[in-house]
Amino acid sequence: MGGSGDIAQELRERVAASPFHTDFGIRIEAAQEGTVHLRWSATAAHRNLQGTVHGGALATLADVAMGLAVRTTVGPGRRHATIELGVHYVRPATPGELAAVGRVVRAGTQIAFAEADVTDDRGRLVARATATYAVTPREGD
Amino acid sequence: MGGSGDIAQELRERVAASPFHTDFGIRIEAAQEGTVHLRWSATAAHRNLQGTVHGGALATLADVAMGLAVRTTVGPGRRHATIELGVHYVRPATPGELAAVGRVVRAGTQIAFAEADVTDDRGRLVARATATYAVTPREGD
Amino acid sequence: MGGSGDIAQELRERVAASPFHTDFGIRIEAAQEGTVHLRWSATAAHRNLQGTVHGGALATLADVAMGLAVRTTVGPGRRHATIELGVHYVRPATPGELAAVGRVVRAGTQIAFAEADVTDDRGRLVARATATYAVTPREGD
Amino acid sequence: MGGSGDIAQELRERVAASPFHTDFGIRIEAAQEGTVHLRWSATAAHRNLQGTVHGGALATLADVAMGLAVRTTVGPGRRHATIELGVHYVRPATPGELAAVGRVVRAGTQIAFAEADVTDDRGRLVARATATYAVTPREGD
Lengths: 141, 141, 141, 141
Description:
The structure is a homotetramer.
Chain A: H1 4-16, H2 19-24, E1 27-32, E2 35-42, H3 55-71, E3 78-89, E4 96-107, E5 111-119, E6 125-137
Antiparallel strand pairs in A: 1-2, 2-4, 3-6, 4-5, 5-6
């Protein structure tokens, strides 16, 4: 009861309810416990002055992928918040289709660790990210 | 011959020419060699599901502040690119006015280090960031 | 009743009881709530193949400075553990006297953030570090 | 003609010439271009006050693994220096045998990125690290 299709669907509904996620424009391709696959279209509007995708946009994409991956492992009565994010910009990205995979490295009762890879439409690694999350009981629960 | 007002004005023109920066909506309050002060309005559209400003937006703000600070120390014949970005989310931020100060820690001929503080409208630290930049001769120069 | 001299003395006793700290050889110069000043002698034994102080030794120095700073803000019934450490190597260091200042950026009930500067005997910044700590009730208390 | 055994042997000779590496006590198990496998014995001397292996020692182990991996991809006429190191402490480690695998993520002409996993003798992930290196022509060459 609760296969990976359900997890992806639940995340899609969650994302649809978030103004930031909707505006940023990610698409959830697949999800299972601990791993989320996203797609995102970098457009001309995401270019910096050098014509490549701005690092802030890539950081956002990676953070979203990792946060959703953590979400799949944290029970409904708990919330998570990013406490630390690190991104390595391995290769410049130009506007086009990007893919991001977020993975949980370890999810404990108080702290969760995750990582993400961002690749371009030729499968080349563009950015690699890591993050740490605080996991806490949901207020009011 | 090149006071701090000129530096701020030059950065404003630079930012006005960048689709990403214009869309994100920062305002350059002041700038001198090695330091840039920004303002940014976090709106309802930047909220995550928990109602606080999304970490990706804060990472973007910090990256922009640091990148512009590095820009003030890199000569016109050279370009800089973020190779690594780290953000600590010290305190949740709610929509409203945020300030970011980007500072160059050290700018060498090949590598530059910078840091940024993001504070809310009560002056409380919201995020602290560090970044590393590759500095290279501008292609074609 | 608990001035800064007492804090430094308490940390010195703590450090004296730790095999790792004793072996590494730091000296606590001063300490107050949230800030700790250390001295450490980098010797020929800490050199890497390029003759400069190994990054692992500088990471250790910074981590010790930050951990002790966090210790000054965490009550006796609680423990702290590093969950994330980041170091920027701003300038190569050669063997000699180094100073490290660890500072708490924010200490919450579950998470603490700290930063450290490492400087050489000419006062030049050698490394800058940040870290995140999990703060938990001491087991058995 | 330069098989992986030669690479491991070359690294062993290199490490034997470095006071820091010799003192720290790593053993090179295997190496090929871009990847290095190490073993390291954490002893009672590496314990912090909580009885677990100090984060500085784990940071050193990870940095050594990544630096040697970068070394395998950088030609003899070039040198590399760590400019940034990040470590996530995923699980406490107790004294005993630890393994570290350093891998090059991307090695460019000026910048190299690497990552490392540290695991305990039960194969559990203890720490995960990332680092950035500046690659420069060797002085005097």
